[in-house]
Amino acid sequence: MSIRAGRYVVAEAAATLTPTARHSLQARTAAADLPSDAALSHLSAACLHGIALWGVDLGTVQVVRPGSGGGHRRPSLHTRFAKLEGDEVVDVGGIRVTSVPRTLVDLGRMLSFESTVVSTDDALHRKLVTVDELTKALVRGAGSPRAGRARQAIAFATPAPKASASPGAG
């Protein structure tokens, strides 16, 4: 079975892969052909980080490269150009991937409210990200298209701060 042009997996093995595992394999394969400044992003990064996904289409590997302007799509690869800070890229198994906070903000800008909440809640529950890290990533992305949409979904998934007891209470 074809994973990518010129890259194949034994059909029996491919049949046992979950959609997320299949996409992770496609993303890892695509990463080998990417420029050195590129990082897997959005859904592809979420798959490699092991973040839960719900109600998404995993048909296209997603990549971000530093720069401005649009991007380009091919049937199996969507490349975006955006500002990319050094701490927003991490190594996952030898592959450049956007960090968990950056990935969740990117998902929030791209996915439905519900899908973003599922992914953010999973990452917070499994301690892949902290509220402070998410806040910093949201501030960085404040001027990006659909940033408000990401902020709303992430705020919904983020636990409210615990009230502290007032000094005279008791």
Topology overview:
Layout: E1 2-4, E2 7-8, H1 11-15, H2 19-31, E3 39-40, H3 42-49, E4 61-66, E5 71-74, E6 77-82, E7 89-92, E8 95-98, H4 100-110, H5 113-125, H6 131-140, H7 147-157
Parallel strand pairs: 4-6
Antiparallel strand pairs: 1-2, 3-4, 5-6, 7-8
Biggest sheet character? 4 strands, mixed
Helix vs. strand class: alpha+beta
Strand segment tally: 8
Order of helices and strands: EEHHEHEEEEEHHHH
Q: Return the average pLDDT rounded to an integer.
A: 89
- Mass-distribution shape: globular
Query: What is the spatial order of strands in the main beta sheet?
Result: 3-4-6-5
| Rg | 18 Å
Unreliable runs: none
N→C terminal distance: 67 Å
Strand content: 15-25%
Binned, the helix content reads 40-55%
Number of helices: 7
Protein traits:
alpha+beta; 18% strand; 170 residues; two-stranded antiparallel ribbon; 7 helices; 42% helix
General description of the model:
With 170 residues, the protein is α+β, with helices and mostly antiparallel strands. The protein contains 7 helices and 8 strands; from the N terminus they run ββααβαβββββαααα. The protein has helices spanning 11-15, 19-31, 42-49, 100-110, 113-125, 131-140, 147-157; strands at 2-4, 7-8, 39-40, 61-66, 71-74, 77-82, 89-92, 95-98. The strands form 3 sheets. It has a 4-stranded mixed β-sheet with strand order 3-4-6-5. A two-stranded antiparallel ribbon has the order 1-2. A two-stranded antiparallel sheet has the order 7-8. The protein is globular and about 60 Å long. The termini are far apart.
